[in-house]
Amino acid sequence: MRRELSFGSEVELHYSSHYKRKISALENEVSRLESRVCEEQAVNAELFNRLKNLERDFRSCVEEVKQLREETFSLRSELRHAEVRHEELSKELERKKELERAFGEIQKRNKELEKKLNIRHGDEEVFGLSTPSSKKVFKGNATQENQSKKGGGNPGHEGHGREVFGEEEADRTELNEEEPLRCDCMEEAKWERMGSAKSFSYSFCPMKLEKVMVENALWRCVECGRVVRSRNPNRRKNGLYDNRAIAHFLTECYYHNTPVGQFIRRIGVNRGTFFNLAHPVADKAENLFTRILSDACSEKLLHADETGTRMDGTNAYIWLIANERFKIFLHRKSRSGEEIRSVFGQGKRNMVLVTDRYAGYNKVNVLHQYCYVHLLRDIKKEKEAFPEEPEVQCFCPKLSALLKKAIGMFGSGVRLSSYRKRALKIKEQIMEICRHPAQHPAVQSLQNIFREKEDGLFQWIRSPDIPCENNYAERALRPLVITRKISYGSQSVRGMKTREILTTVLHTAAARGLEPAAFLEAFLNNPENASLLFS
Predict the structure, then answer these.
(1) 487 within domain boundaries
(2) What pTM was computed for the model?
(3) Domain end: 437, 469, 501, which one?
(4) Which residues contact 288 (CB under 8 A, 6 or more apart)?
(5) Percent helix, strand and coil across the chain, each rounded to 5?
(6) Residues 366 and 514 in one domain
(7) What is the pLDDT of residues 209-229, one digit of tens each?
(8) Per the structure, how many domains does the chain have?
(9) For residue 283, is it within any domain?
């Protein structure tokens, strides 16, 4: 009995401790779950708050989207209005440009009609900006600065005195034995000769033909008995004029540019005789002319210009190609660029050709340098044409000052590096004002010259020996222009060809330090003397 009770109590004790542990574990689990529930509730509360914030943000974003849609709609509406306005303004601008072009055409047409009707206002110049001072209608007084320039030597300069030749240089000696008329001591004095005193003076020998009778020796061949006369090396066979006379005739007319009609009246030779002397000499010198053209193509620097002339009542042209060693005068019937290309050919040549902006010179494949003096005339013309336009009046003086500074760089005695540095600075200044946006058409047209022809406007920056003006050609061509005004050109193609050859040969000889008449005489005496021209 006791054993059973003791056993039952042991069992009871065993189960009670088991359930206690179980209950404790369950209580711990419940506590853990409760804490987990609390944590989840806190997370849910936080998430609920975030959801509320997101809903609030979503509603505000919806409101902003609505506002942006409204603003986009209004902007699109404004854009459509702006596009319509832009189209209207573009059409108005095109219409304004058309009106400006039409107004320019009307002004141009009006001037043409005024010219046809010979309507003059009294202040026009005969030849525009090219009018010489002698032809100006209204000629202003010289400035005080120019009036103060009296010429002559600088104050304090000793001078060089008169050039007196020596006794051995005198061409002839004269004997002067004129007895004095009176003396200071009395009216009628007696004089006795006591010696002589030398004095020197210059006299003038008028140009005239000297009639010479030549005694020619006769020579008989000992073998066959043929009789011949001594040959005169200074005269053509059966010629009436010797080579000295012919050389001076042609030099007077084709180098000194004396009109043929005036010369033959003065010398006493008829026109046919003169040209019968000139044409054969030109034919004989044609090889010299051809070689001069060939040699000129190998030069590093040449100037070129052209001017009009007349040939038998029709238009013709004189082309000049020149430098310090060559002066080539081409007398041609055309002003086409093919004329200048016939000299230089189609190949590329490493030379600088200084010209104006006439398009005919572009047919030559060389380096081009356009004349700045012609540009200065264009600038002056635009400035005078628009006196009330501030943009034109501001732009033109700036560009003119830079171009004049560039012209003054020629021949400066500075080192090449210093020259190029200064030249590049001037170029940059010119291009800066020419690239600046402009509104007035006159300014734009001047700017476009430098923008479109930059390669042909700045060859001068390479060396101080390359000029940016063509005054050399202008001056070399001027004597022929004056001759053209007096003689009215040539009367035949043959005469034009003769003038082309002889003017080229004689002027080239003078450019190389030869006396033209003496060289031509030596060449006529012996064609081998042509080497004098190319030595």
Answers:
(1) yes
(2) 0.70
(3) 469
(4) 501, 505, 523, 530, 533
(5) 60, 10, 35
(6) yes
(7) 888 888 888 888 888 888 888
(8) 2
(9) yes
